[in-house]
Amino acid sequence: MPKLETGLVQVYTGDGKGKTSAAFGLALRAVGRGLKVYIIQFIKGGFDYGELYVVDKLPNLTLRAFGRGKFVTAKPAEADDVRFAQDAFRLAEEVVQGSKYDLVILDEINVALDLKLIDLEEVLKLIKSKPRKVELVLTGRHAPNEVVEAADLVTEMKEIKHPFSRGLQARKGIEY
Amino acid sequence: MPKLETGLVQVYTGDGKGKTSAAFGLALRAVGRGLKVYIIQFIKGGFDYGELYVVDKLPNLTLRAFGRGKFVTAKPAEADDVRFAQDAFRLAEEVVQGSKYDLVILDEINVALDLKLIDLEEVLKLIKSKPRKVELVLTGRHAPNEVVEAADLVTEMKEIKHPFSRGLQARKGIEY
Q: Could A30 and B173 be called an inter-chain contact, meaning their C-beta atoms sit closer than 8 Å?
């Protein structure tokens, strides 16, 4: 099985569309090469997303989503949201440090950080102590500067034009 | 089978990572919802990409890549590159206008436009005349202003930080 010689830390952030999709597209590419991929979703657990329905068709791809199926926007956060995010982060630590996966995607972790559901110092520690061969991807808007600093590759998805501002609803199969 | 009520025109452009991956991630989401997806790759034909190895595991996803397996950078373009791009575009017209696919992804078409391998006016005509229910996605850096104007949703993948500038080679399973 091919393994990465050097895994990097990638961040997809910004207010534009395509952060989670880029991570899933990367997962697709990685499993195509026989890499093992683990996707941990913060916040999104309990939501209904199209990609959840095909993940089991892909070999070497594991996905776990944490959350209570409601958008988390409140600051300070509710106890349930904190608990879900903490559980997700504990799993992230285990999966990254276990070195059994080539690519670990922490989807929406930046949002969890922004909402103070998890601790920035702990995330930085995870980034800095990750095994060399593990590729770590962190997605979500509002990535803290410290995370951007610690990452090797950072892409901002920048919204240039968006039809929701003229009233279009999210569409099944495209936005979710 | 669920069908889109309103298909939009999306553009993923910019110098950052994640344009093609975002399109493939979207394809994954769409097929998860039972939508039919057609991906046409400009320029990239003949190249070896990880995602090519799992596409056949996904239902309702068709992919065709055009190109001669060499990066196209020359202006004026070579005759072969023009021919491959023109063939790709003829197929794109057929697939979009045929209305049999919910999501049509024209991967790297912006690059083909930038290199003048295909005609801007023809692409604008395809965008403007697309059937209402078809979602059309155009990827690649250097999207012409006219394409951005004609699109409904435009995301710029902006490179904030990239390790290739410090000499890292593209990695199998991650960059390709």
A: yes
